[in-house]
Amino acid sequence: MRYTALCAPAIVSMVLAANGHAETLIVNSYGGPYETIIRERIIEPFESRFGIKVIYDAVGSASQDYAKIKATNGRPGFDVVVMTASQSLEGCKEGLLEEFSPEEVPNLEHLSSVIAGVAGPCGAVHEVQYLSLLYRTDKLAGRPNSWNALLDDGLKGKIILPTFQNVMAAYLMEIFSVAHGGDLLENVDPGFAAMAKLAGQSIGFEQSSSVMETYLKGGDVWAMPFWNGRAQLLVDSGLPVDYVLPKEGSIPLVATLNVPKHAANRDAALKFVNFFLEKSSQEAWVTGYKVGSGRIDIEVPADIRAKQITTEADLKALLLPDLAAVATRLSAWGERWERDVVAAAK
Known about the structure:
Layout: H1 8-18, E1 24-28, H2 33-50, E2 53-57, H3 62-71, E3 80-84, H4 85-93, H5 113-119, E4 124-136, E5 159-162, H6 167-179, H7 189-201, E6 202-206, H8 209-218, E7 223-227, H9 228-236, E8 241-244, E9 252-258, H10 266-276, H11 279-289, H12 302-307, H13 312-317, H14 323-342
């Protein structure tokens, strides 16, 4: 399908250029608290330093944004987009994303090779989250330290799981696989067996993370898997919740900055990517959004360092599946999820 409609931010950019305004840059990312924090901590300082006007486009999820890049053959109407390592690898393979070089994005050299390699040459890792165990502190007697806590009899009917359309499902299955004697790719039978048991504990499945958290807020759910960045937002909201990185480990959500192959404002886009990876920008982002970083030279308060991925040791402790190999297995795993896991919940 040929994509012909210009998105609203692209039209605004053309009008500004026609009226002789300063150079513009269209950044596509997320709304809500994310938008508030990125505007304050990253965009406004970038505009001040370079005199480039940033137009913020908060439409679409990472998968929807990548679908738009594919549909337009690399001309989606935005210049920088926040996606994940999975889309970075796919977009690079299909020739739809710019390959970054240290000459054009010097701060790439400061990223840990452990995590930078996960995203490939088209993804600039600007944030690292991990799948955490989120729980109600007013319902559980103590702080859980193992994923197996979700299997405790006391949590029967008090947990919720993601549908397989949410990548948390595949990652949780892989974590349980490793924890129960399997691995991340070739032998995942232990993971599916554990997930079937877990399904028997659950009240059901939801695709959207924002819907999942409503069950926790309402007290119907006492524990569930959740990305730690969003978990921290719930902690900061004052809810009686907390989260842990269980002793068996976790799989990270590697967030990346990407530039579509035919971005209209390529040079400004590369400046933005490099700026976001600066030490001071990473410190501002980690302390503002309360997530981890691919830079291990940042300086952040001890309470944040204690719960986020900020050191080489933190990164090496993560479970890192081959995302390209995972992508080839998702269809078969999805069918097995419906057959083995969803059926066990009924």
